[in-house]
Structures are given as structure tokens and as C-alpha cells.
Amino acid sequence: MRRVQFLELHEQSWFPSSLRDEITGALQFGLNLFNAYAPIAPLLRSMLDATRSRSIIDLCSGAGGPWLGLSRKLQPDGRVFHVLLTDKYPNVRAFQKTRTAPQNHIAFYPDSVDALKVPRELQGFRTMFSSFHHFPAEEARAILQNAIDVGQSIGIFEITRRAPLTIALMFAWALMPFAFTPLIRPFRWSRLFCTYVIPIIPLVLLFDGVVSCLRTYRPQELREMIKKLSGIEYQWEVGEHSKTFGQAPITYLIGRPRDTTLPS
Predict the structure, then answer these.
(1) Does 94 map to a domain?
(2) Residue 264: its pLDDT value, please?
(3) Is residue 13 part of a domain?
């Protein structure tokens, strides 16, 4: 199945910001409800140890991504990792809610952050969850090149795939708001209206979910992408991390300067 660069509705500049916040909020709730990225916590932890980094700069965070659950998975032994959420269209209300969760060490950057040109003052291990596929190949490569240019490590993680099973799962994903919308906090009548009366949220989740699958890079395409990067030498890992039986694996791309080594 060939990759196609369709448009996702909620990422467009003309898409109403209030509705975008509802979409990213539903995505964030689902990722944390199902602990979608929990399986890659050990892999991410090993890379953080390799770079001796305790700061994470999360790009394209939406409403917070998987960090409410994932941050606790990273520090079972008491070591603290500080996560900074950023986005081109920051959902500040959701970011504030994430920050208030106890003992999660999550903060947010209130200004717009372009993943292609991350402000130099934001230093740390860069991560992207379910967002790298948004970018066409040239821009995706520029995101990686920007990290290399400032010597920052980066990890890309995607649960979507260009596969019939994953695309079929998007229909089940779009039904999620009908079951769980009343549980999303803070409670808003507008969210119920856009779910149960005029189901804009489920329809956008379905459309954007299918498009996300069709846009997701395969491991081989990621390997071809990093061959075209320049600058200091990086060590790259590309693959698919298997989850439990019957679920699609998580595609990952992790790069760090080659002169960083595992602590003794």
C-alpha cells in the first residue's frame, strides 16, 4: 500500500480551534485510557539512560498525548523525568489539566512551537507520538535534521500503520467517543452536543484516523529518510515494537549522537 499525503481535518489552520481542542482532547483521553504507548516505555527509558537525559521535549503534543500514563512508566525506581509539552496549536486548557496531575512532572510551553524549527532554548530528548505522519517526506526529514543541527536526540513513535487491520480499527476508534465522552474532564455540554447530537467529533476521528494510517511511514521509508541527513554522526534505531497478540506494533525511529554512551 503506497503512502498518500492526504490532509487531516483537525490539523488545518481553518479548522475551528475550539473543535480542534475537542478532537485532541478525545485523542489524548483514548491514548491514556488504553495505555497505547506503554509497551515502548522500556525502549524509551533505555534511550534516555543512553543520553543521560532527564528532560523530554514533546513535539506536536495535541492535548498531552500519552504522557499522563507514560511518564509514570518511565520512573518506577524514583528517577524523575521532566516532560515539556509543545504544539503548533497548543491546547492550553488541556495542558494545564495535565500539569495538575500529581507527581507526573509535566509542564507545557504556552507559545506555538513548529517541529521543523524548535526554539534553541528547548533542550532535551525530543519525542513525537502519533504525529510524524502529518508531515510530507521533505518536512519530516527537516524535523530530524533540525534535531541533528542542535545535537539533540529524538524519538518518533506511531501506533498507526498502512495496513488493512489498522485501518479497520479506526472505525472502532471512532466509536469510542459515544462510550467515553461523559468521562472526559472538564465536562462540557458542547462536547456532548458534538458527539451525540451532531457527531462531528466521531466523524472527524474516523476520517483523520484513516488518513493517519495512509500517511504513516513504514520502517524502510524511515531508513531511507535518515540516509539523506547530514551533520554530526548519529546512531539510529528503526523498527516495529510488538505489543500483545492481535494488536498492531508500534513503529519507532530513535536517533542520538553517536558519542553518547550508556552510563556505566
Answers:
(1) yes
(2) 30
(3) no
Residue 245 included in any domain: yes
Phi, psi of 211 (to 5 degrees): -60, -40
In a domain, 194, yes or no: no
- What CATH number should be reported for the domain holding residue 139? 3.40.50.150
List, for residues 107-138, the tens digit of each pLDDT value. 999 899 999 999 999 999 999 999 999 999 99
Contact between residue 126 and residue 134 where contact means Cβ atoms under 8 Å apart: no
Residue range(s) defining the domain that contains residue 115:
30-167+216-257
